[in-house]
Amino acid sequence: MRITTDIHCLIEKKFDSVQYFQSGQHVYSEGEPSDGVYYIVEGKIKILKSGLNKQVTMWFCYPNEFIGIVPFFLNAETHDSTAVVTGATAKLIYISRKDFTDLMISYPDVQKEIVNELSKKISLTEMRITSSNQHSLKVRFIEAVAFLAEQEQDYGDQREKPETRTQLKLTVDNLSEISGISRKYLEKMLAKFEKKDLLHVESEDRVVIHDLNKFLSFK
């Protein structure tokens, strides 16, 4: 979820435990003790989870989002995933479990929204993992874009957007991680869809879908 301006100001004013992390640095790792959550002020965070032979990219988180919240809601003692800074330096605010509990009690609507959106992310991720085991690379790519587009609608800036044009926040490399497709092969698929005028790659390697509904029809 994207925190409202009022709650954002409250968090920055009330909690002064600001921490800075460099690109590639772990905020926390899977299996480490969990005694609080983090609120993203600046930067982008990649969430990873251990697979059979390697870590799998689950999703990416952006400013005005909380990370490390699954152990809180499950009352677990350790983190169930790894959070890594990707891109530029990240500015995070650490909030202890006690303080986060008080925040959720004071703002029950925020708690409800966090749980709903977290459930949606987990559901979409499970669907994506199922797709990776059963479908072709093309279908996996299209479903990965659908997954990311869903995130853009829920977590994007609160401004009026075209109904069909979707600019993904993630780069081609990020899209490769999410879909589980090599960048070299992914670039070939992007070129084919670009020839059909369904998308193009903008500056900073970001993908723009011209008409999402039409794009998804090629599944």
Short synopsis of the structure:
With 219 residues, the chain is of the alpha+beta class. It has helices at residues 5-14, 70-74, 97-106, 108-134, 137-155, 172-179, 183-195, 212-216; strands at 18-21, 26-28, 36-50, 55-61, 66-67, 82-96, 166-171, 199-201, 206-209.
Describe the structure.
The protein has helices at 5-14, 70-74, 97-106, 108-134, 137-155, 172-179, 183-195, 212-216; strands at 18-21, 26-28, 36-50, 55-61, 66-67, 82-96, 166-171, 199-201, 206-209. It is elongated. Helix 3 (97-106) packs across helix 4 (108-134) and helix 4 packs antiparallel against helix 5. It folds into two domains: 5-126, Jelly Rolls, CATH 2.60.120; 135-216, Arc Repressor Mutant, subunit A, CATH 1.10.10. The protein is built from eight helices and nine strands. Residues 155-162 have low confidence and may be disordered. Strands 1, 2, 3, 4, 5 and 6 form a six-stranded antiparallel sheet that branches. The protein has a three-stranded antiparallel sheet with strand order 7-9-8. The protein is an alpha+beta fold and 219 residues long. The protein starts with a helix and ends with a helix.
Describe this protein with a few key phrases.
alpha+beta, 8 helices, Jelly Rolls, three-stranded antiparallel β-sheet, Arc Repressor Mutant, subunit A, six-stranded antiparallel β-sheet, 219 residues
Produce the secondary structure layout.
Elements (H helix, E strand, L loop, with lengths): L4 H10 L3 E4 L4 E3 L7 E15 L4 E7 L4 E2 L2 H5 L7 E15 H10 L1 H27 L2 H19 L10 E6 H8 L3 H13 L3 E3 L4 E4 L2 H5 L3
Antiparallel strand pairs: 1-6, 2-6, 3-4, 3-5, 3-6, 7-9, 8-9
Helix pairs in contact: 3-4, 4-5
